[in-house]
Amino acid sequence: MAQNMRDIKRRIKSVSSVEHITSAMKLVSAAKLRRAKATFEKTTEYFHFITDSINEIFNNASEVPHKYLQGSREIEKTCYIVITSSKGLCGSFNSNVIKEAAHNIQTETGEAAIVAVGTKGRDYFKKRDVEIISEYIEPPENISFIATREISRPIIELYDKGEIDKVVLVSTMFINNLEQRVRTQQLLPFIIEKNPDVIRVEREIEYEPSVEEVFNYLVPKYVEIVVFGAIIESATCEHAARRMAMESATDNAREMLSDLSLFYNRARQAAITSEIIEVISGSEAQK
Question: Which pLDDT belongs to residue 42?
């Protein structure tokens, strides 16, 4: 009985330590989430304005360079920009992104290559011998817009050279603090459709010095902006997912502590009862 009580006390101490750690991590994640969400909300409106403006140009231009349009080339090699975190303890945040990217690789024809933002995605695909074009292991919230150029520019160069034929972004979309959703977005080549929501300008647009030069400038900027926006959004989703995971872990630890305390009290009461019985039995034997 005494050994059983010592084991329970040891487990209570261990679970209590875990509860303190997860509770502290929840508070840290909540603070990081507030900062990341504030940054995300400040930049979202700006990014939407830029991307909508570029989409409007693409929809209104009749002379978009053929190499940037869907159907301009056979898709032999696809580059996937996979945005994960460099840390764990954030629930299914990383696994959902990795599963989506892996599913796309399996279902698409042709070769696949990865541009990994975050170590979790890099490690997963490296173990499975998927080509890693480049990797960026800084925490997403620490990646600046300038650093985003280092991610996107080599991709554009490879696309222009014909070494890759398609660019797909796989990241996490922020819905609210309790819900995040994986998103797959094709960046190149562009799929231009007659979208009724896009206002078509009823006038001729002149591009100087040339259409080719304008779009050679616009396309890298467009990819940079979309990738940077996705990284900021992914950082927000990561902290939201980690806060939820740590809150759940803290609640589970407290529930275990409650159960262990109940078991310990029962064992202690049983030990006291046993000692009382032994004392009474001993006193009766001496009569």
Answer: 77
